Amino acid sequence: MGLTLFDKIWDAHVVAQIEGGREILYIDKHLIHEVTSPQAFTGLQSRNLPVFRTDKTIATADHNVPTINQHLPIEEPLSAKQVAMLVENCKDFGVELYGLGHPNQGIVHVIGPELGITKPGMTIVCGDSHTSTHGAFGSIAFGIGTSQVEQVLATQCLLQMKPKKMRITIDGDLPPNVLSKDIILYLLSKLGTGGATGYFIEYAGSTIRALSMEARMTICNMSIEMGARGGLIAPDEKTFDYVKGRAFSPQGALLYEAITYWKSLFSDEDAIFDKEIKYSASEIAPMLTYGTNPGMGIKVDQQVPIQTDHESPESFSKALNYMGLKSGQSLEGMSIDQVFIGSCTNSRIEDLRIVADFIKGKKVAANVKAQIVPGSKQVEKQAIEEGIAEIAEAAGFEFRQPGCSACLGMNEDKVPRGKYCVSTSNRNFEGRQGPGARTLLASPLTAASAAIEGKIVDVRKYPS
Fold first, then answer.
1. CA 426 – CA 405 distance, rounded (Å)
2. Closest CA to 177 of 287, 280, 279, 332
């Protein structure tokens, strides 16, 4: 019997099998940031343990950092404390840190791929649920808790139960103005936030193969929102071309050897998955969420449903009440207050180029506060050099400095209570972007059109 892509990578990293079905898994790369690492380092200190493999650990500051005046002291007390602790812990334990001001600083799931840290066939973990992003390269990448962060720092291994395997196949050409964010929001609307619980997803099919690496990252990023342990895509020539020449990528003969191995990373024809699901790309349209979890989504020209199969009547009613919406209501034409383009889901240079192409020569509506937050210093630099920052500011967007920003209410970039924010981030939970904030998840293109019009519009109908 053949092996799945997931099997090939997982089995190659099993150090030992433990009674009861658990396995000790070796971790190739450990990414850390300021939020989930302090307690882990404290645990090491209390047991007088070093970081076992400092060469396998890289840190950056992203969640709590301000996105303006990063050269100045952080004003928010908790954020300042957490970032300072990261600096101190990395210094004490000899861990490489890309802190504020460093040219490699940025959102952890943006800098990993752009620096060539992320490569096919790896196991990658981070104390952050959206570590699944790195699966776009054909790696097993997943988020871990703080106690597990300590475990990896101390041993470079994790005790794990092997997940079940699901394959989602999408074939065909995407309709015009439909992006990868629309693909994953569509899947979430079909499967719900628990539809992949207990599984690791492999995304396959002609639609997936046609996507750029940055678009693939968006899809894998939100695998966790379906309850999956993670998601991955088989590497191909696009993957190899993306990885070549980056700071941490192999070079010369080592690159040739690596690619030879990477080409073996695919699911065999006779591999068995625990669950198979298939969709057609023609079914997918620009998507928008209306509720308080990413599975509560509809096509932009649809109406808010009366009920869904994934929500209880009580939770569905509670979500609509929080969002100030009603069943049967159309979101198209609804006035909005803010637009946030950024986060580990959609803050890469490709996302910013899409937005810039749309907003060039246009103006943000008077009723909207619009922000573009690049995912890293490298993205910021590239956006400035390509004129994207200038286009954004001319249109009325704030072009800010790198960080997680308004994706989550842990820093200064919060959405005010009761305000509607069309966001390219990954979660729309109650209070996610700030106490009482109302989040509608969308693609960068849908978000950009909402900023210009001051309301939700179907970008397919927008005059060219």
1. 13
2. 287
Q: How many Å apart are CA 296 and CA 121, to the nearest integer?
A: 33
pLDDT at 464: 56
Query: Rounded CA gap, 139 and 12, in Å?
Result: 12
Q: Determine the Cα angle at 459 with ends 457 and 462, to 5°.
A: 90
Residue pair 295/187 in contact by the 8 Å Cβ criterion: no
Q: What is the Cβ-side half-sphere exposure of residue 356, based on CA atoms within 13 angstroms?
A: 22
Q: Terminus-to-terminus CA distance in the chain, angstroms?
A: 52
Q: Which residue has the tokens 């690791």?
A: 200
Which residues, given as ranges, of the chain have pLDDT below 70? Answer: 463-464
Which domains are seen in the chain, by residue range? 5-161 (3.30.499.10), 164-283 (3.40.1060.10), 289-461 (3.30.499.10)
Specify the 3-state DSSP secondary structure of 411: coil
Give me the phi and psi of 60, to 5 degrees please.
Answer: -150, 160
Distances in Å between the alpha carbon of 415 and those of 82, 84, 103, 223?
22, 25, 28, 25
Distance separating alpha carbons of residues 201 and 276, to the nearest angstrom:
10
Q: Which DSSP letter does residue 443 get? A: -
DSSP category for residue 365: -
What six digits make up the tokens of 436?
């009482």
Strands 369-372 vs 438-441: parallel, antiparallel or unpaired: unpaired
Non-local CB neighbours of 275 within 8 Å, separated by 6+ positions: 164, 165, 166, 167, 199
| pLDDT for residue 412 | 82
Q: DSSP letter at 292?
A: S
Q: Rounded distance, CA 55 to CA 57, Å?
A: 6
pTM of the model: 0.97
Inter-CA distances, 422 with 153, 317, 333, 379, 428, Å: 38, 21, 13, 22, 10
How much is the pLDDT for 303?
A: 97
Instruction: Write out the two tokens for 176.
Output: 């015009």
> Using one digit for the tens of pLDDT, what is the confidence trace for 326-351?
999 999 999 999 999 999 999 999 99
**pLDDT at residue 463 in the model:** 64
Strands 14-17 and 22-26: antiparallel
Bridge-based pairing state of the strands 199-204 and 230-232: parallel
Rg over CA atoms, the chain:
21
